[in-house]
Design a protein that fits this description.
The protein is of the alpha/beta class. It is about 35% helix and about 20% strand. It has one domain. The chain is built from six helices and seven strands.
Length: about 190
C-alpha cells in the first residue's frame, strides 16, 4: 500500500515534504480542511509516509457502503450532536495502546471558521504526546508532515507558535474561500 500510495501521489503531482513522525504516540493536525478530498490525499500521504493515524469522522458519514470503506481506512465514527467527552475518549485510546496516533482537523468543519477547536491541544497535553503540524497545499501540491511540537504550559504562546507556523507555510486550500490562517488564533 505504501508504494501504491506513493504512485498515486506522484501520478497526480503531489510531493511529500519532510519525514514521517518517529514517535510511537502522537497527534497530527491537518490544515487546511475544506473538502472531503483532504481526507483522500491525507490518507495517501500518511500511508506513503509509513503511518496510519485514526481519523474521527461524524457518524452521519458511516452509511452503507461508505461506512465500510471509512472504517477500513482507519476512520472512527463520532457523535457530534452532544458533548460526548471526545477528548477523554481519545486519551483513553492513547492510554490503552503502546502505539497510537490520531489525525485531527482542528477547524472542525469544512466551512470557513474564525477559531480552531482546541481538543487536539488538550488531547496532546493530557496524553503527554507531541503534535505534528501537517499541511496540504493544493497550489504547490506539497504535502508537509512538518514540525514536531510539544505543548507547554502556556496555551496562548503555543497557539501563537502554531499560528505562525501556518502563516509561514501559507497553504492554499482546495476551496480557498473556506480557509484563513486567522482561524488558528485562540
Amino acid at each position: 500500500m505504501r508504494r501504491f500510495s506513493g504512485f498515486i501521489l506522484r501520478l497526480f503531482g503531489w510531493k511529500l515534504i519532510d519525514q514521517a513522525p518517529t514517535d510511537k504516540k502522537f497527534v497530527v493536525i491537518a490544515l487546511p480542511h475544506t473538502s472531503m478530498m483532504d481526507f483522500v490525499w491525507g490518507k495517501l500521504v500518511f500511508t506513503y509516509a509509513g503511518f496510519s493515524p485514526k481519523i474521527f469522522i461524524k457518524k452521519e458519514m458511516f452509511f452503507f457502503p461508505v461506512g465500510l470503506l471509512l472504517k477500513a481506512l482507519g476512520a472512527v465514527p463520532i457523535n457530534r450532536n452532544r458533548s460526548t467527552g471526545m477528548v477523554e475518549q481519545v486519551i483513553a485510546y492513547f492510554n490503552k495502546n503502546d502505539e497510537f496516533c490520531v489525525c485531527i482537523t482542528p477547524e472542525g468543519t469544512r466551512k470557513l471558521t474564525n477559531k480552531l477547536k482546541r481538543g487536539f491541544y488538550f488531547i496532546a497535553k493530557q496524553a503527554n504526546v507531541p503534535i505534528y503540524l501537517s499541511v496540504l497545499d493544493y497550489k504547490t501540491k506539497h504535502a508537509i508532515i512538518g514540525e514536531r511540537f510539544v505543548p507547554t504550559d502556556d496555551i496562548n504562546a503555543d497557539f501563537e507558535h502554531i499560528h505562525q507556523y501556518y502563516v509561514e507555510k501559507n497553504p492554499t486550500a482546495r476551496c480557498p474561500k473556506q480557509f484563513s490562517t486567522d482561524c488558528i488564533r485562540i
